[in-house]
Amino acid sequence: MRLILLGAPGVGKGTQAAKLARRLQVPHISTGELLREEIQNSTPIGLQVTEYMNAGELAPDSIMIELLEKRLREPDCLNGFILDGFPRTLSQANYLKTLVECLKTPLDAVISIEVASEVIVDRLTRRGRYDDTPTTIKHRLDIYHRETEPLKEFYRQIGMLRGVDGDADQEEVTGRILRCIAAIDF
Ligand code: AMP
Q: Whose CA is closest to 55, among 145, 130, 127, 151?
């Protein structure tokens, strides 16, 4: 199973990706988490992306592509993967298309988790991660609408997009996603 989870910051992508990864026995690949590890280890990439993350900006596509490709080439991805936080721009989506073609690992579905903006702001404010200040929350949501939301149309056009209502408790949303995947005609 090779899935992408799409959705604004705060819709519960990370939580759902982790639960689905356990259920489907595939790795959960969070590019935000990969970047946080680079920062913690003070690697050259970590040093380059710190400012972007603190400001709520997207890290450069070139860095993200390099990190993702390295991760997708690891052997545990042979069985599948769940992508959380990638792609976030059209250029990342185009790159991913080429990469999965080249690795002969086509994507199965793109699940967009949908939650109303008021609920999202409330959830992010309570999450309290270091990059969740009121200013960066607003900025990340603006960037999501500008850069990432157009990906829904990109995947809709190739028949891969599935929408799931994410305004429910975690278990219920996981159930909705699993039912949505089960209904896909592979
Ligand atoms: P996340 O944990 O997915 O909320 O990501 C945290 C931060 O990491 C984002 O606000 C961005 O600064 C950066 N980031 C994560 N994934 C990407 C990506 N695919 N492209 C650009 N920046 C990213």
A: 130
pTM score of the predicted model: 0.95
Which structural domains are found in the chain, ordered by start?
2-182 (3.40.50.300)
> What pLDDT is attached to residue 5?
98
Q: Is the pLDDT of residue 130 over 90?
A: no
Q: Is the CB of 59 under 6 A from ligand 1?
A: yes
| Ligand 1 near 17 CB (within 6 A) | no
- Please report, as a single letter, which amino acid is at residue 117: S
Nearest CA to 11 among 129, 115, 158?
Answer: 115
Q: How far is the CA of 53 from the centre of ligand 1 (A)?
A: 7
By the 8 A CB rule, do 28 and 84 touch? yes
**What's the whole-number average pLDDT of the chain?**
95
Q: What is the pLDDT of residues 87-105, one digit of tens each?
A: 999 999 999 999 999 999 9
Q: Under a CB-based contact definition with an 8 Å cutoff, are residues 162 and 111 in contact?
A: yes
186 Cα to the center of ligand 1, angstroms? 30
The tens digit of pLDDT for each residue in 3-49 reads 999 999 999 999 999 999 999 999 999 999 999 999 999 999 999 99
**Exposed, middle or buried: residue 109 (CB in 10 Å: 0-12, 13-18, 19+)?**
buried
